[in-house]
Amino acid sequence: MALVKPHHHIHRRQRFIIGGLVFAALVILTLIEWAGAVYATKPMLVIGPAALAKAALILAFFMHVRELWAVDELAEADHDLAGDEGGDD
Amino acid sequence: MAIAADHAHGAMHDDLAPRVRLQTNRFGLWLFIASESFLFAAVIAARFYLLGFETAEELNQTLGLGITMILLVSSLTAYLAEESIATNDQKKFLRFTWLTVLLAIVFVGGVAYEWSEAFSHFPPGDLYGTLFFTTTGLHAFHVITGALALAAVGWVGRDGRWNDEDHWPVEGVVKYWHFVDVVWVFIFPTLYLLQ
To answer: N or C: which end of chain B has fewer CB within 10 A?
Structure first.
């Protein structure tokens, strides 16, 4: 029962490195938020974009939001597979 | 011939079913996450509507930063747990799963400590206190349920129940955990940093 893993072609070590880099970016952005709250004259201009960037990073790399769009690609693959099976008959 | 064709069709159907099921599961989870997002968005919107950019100086910003870092680390360990089971590394899967649960407990402990301090700062009926307890309480509830779900997949998977080809429950719970992290990404600046 082989389930589809959209990112399975990426090497395991590479995935771990990506996770580490995303985590480092999240920590840096959090510290930027903190500094923005303490030092910036208009903190919202620093905190807002930083928070959005953090959310985008988590959605993209940790939650694999692209899977929602990949459904169409998988459906096409299924269609191709069904076509191949039909051709064999 | 017809029987052979039926067998071929049946085999193809069996092969496709798990894939379709996984797609459906994922789509359902994303819909659930979207509905939860509206809930938290409403609470955060209420905070800005009622208080603007006003912030309570009584809140412990350092503690807020500390528990934020703990949640970020837990997101990394949850990610590593999922990646470990995706490559069939049972040992690392269990290690990172239980580490995530431990970090969740520490986070909830931090929130509990913050609450114990906040009770003395915000008397009943205080507007900021109401929003603070509602927002952090709602989030903490999600953290607790996420931690319980992580513990469940960790416990069930202790004997190798999950593997690289079959681990949807792990993936689903980890996605939920990341969602809880995303929510805190907005709650932390909203309650602790804006001024």
So the answer is: N
Residue B151 pLDDT = 97
**CA-wise closest residue to B195 among B92, B33, B59:** B59
Q: Which domains does chain B have, with CATH numbers?
A: 40-193 (1.20.120.80)
Tell if the CB–CB gap between A3 and B165 is shorter than 8 Å: yes
CA–CA separation, A45 and A37 (whole Å)? 10
Residue of B nearest to A2 (CA): B165
SS3 readout for B12-47? HHHHHHHHHHHHHHHHHHHHHHHHHHHHHHHHHHHH
Q: Residue for token digits 């985008």?
A: A56
B168: Cα within 13 Å, side-chain hemisphere: 16
Chain A nearest-CA residue for B191: A37
As for the ipTM of the complex, it is 0.86
Q: How far is B132 from chain A (nearest CA, A)?
A: 18
- Could you give phi then psi for residue A44, rounded to 5 degrees? -60, -30
Quick check: B186 contacting A, CB < 8 Å? yes
Q: Do A30 and B165 touch (CB under 8 A)?
A: no
Can you read off the two tokens belonging to residue A86?
């039909």
pLDDT band at A79 (very low <50, low <70, confident <90, very high): low
